Amino acid sequence: MFHIYCPYCEELREEEEFHPKGQAHIERPKDPEACSDEEWGDYLFFRDNPRGIHHELWVHAVGCRKFFNATRNTVTYEILETYKMGEQPTITAESLANREALGSVQVAGGGQQTVGASNASVASVKGVKA
Ligand SMILES: [Zn+2]
Where does this protein have coiled-coil stretches (predicted)? Predict the structure, then answer.
């Protein structure tokens, strides 16, 4: 069992209380009528599936029932941070690439980034305050 930090409840809660809801930060087109079929189809159906850092929408379904965002490493399943709706992540693939350049992040065999791999089994997540 691992725990996820809810930024609204401000505490670590059991994983079973949460549900993932897909990719975060997807903006609905301001004027859907002006979209081409391809643009509308991209908005509705196509999502990123990166190897590494991914920003995801989660809901604390059996808790406060609020939606929030999480930055997760899809290779290690480690949740690196959670943050409230409307906030921006502090950890991005670009920021990790910069840290990697400074030597503070280990590079896995496939050249992918891993962060805090020693704690991968227990994801302890710090909340992010804007
Ligand atoms: Zn909550």
Answer: none
Q: What is the model's pTM?
A: 0.73
Asked if residue 128 is part of any domain, the answer here is no
Residue 63 CA, ligand 1 centroid: distance in Å: 5
> How many separate domains does the chain show?
1
Per residue of the chain (130 residues), what is the pLDDT tens digit? 789 999 999 999 999 999 999 999 999 999 999 999 999 999 999 999 999 999 999 999 999 999 999 999 999 999 999 999 999 999 999 988 888 888 755 544 444 444 443 343 334 444 444 4
Quote the ligand 1 centre to 67 CA distance (angstroms).
Answer: 8
Instruction: Tell the residue number behind the tokens 């693939």, with chain if given.
Output: 93
Q: What is the CATH number of the domain that holds 79?
A: 3.30.2270.10
33 found inside a domain: yes
For residue 9, what are the domain limits?
3-119
Classify residue 129: in a domain, yes or no. Answer: no
Cα 14 to ligand 1 centroid, rounded to whole Å: 11
| Strand order across the 67-73 sheet | 19-23, 53-59, 67-73, 79-84
Ligand 1 centroid–CA 4 distance in Å is 10
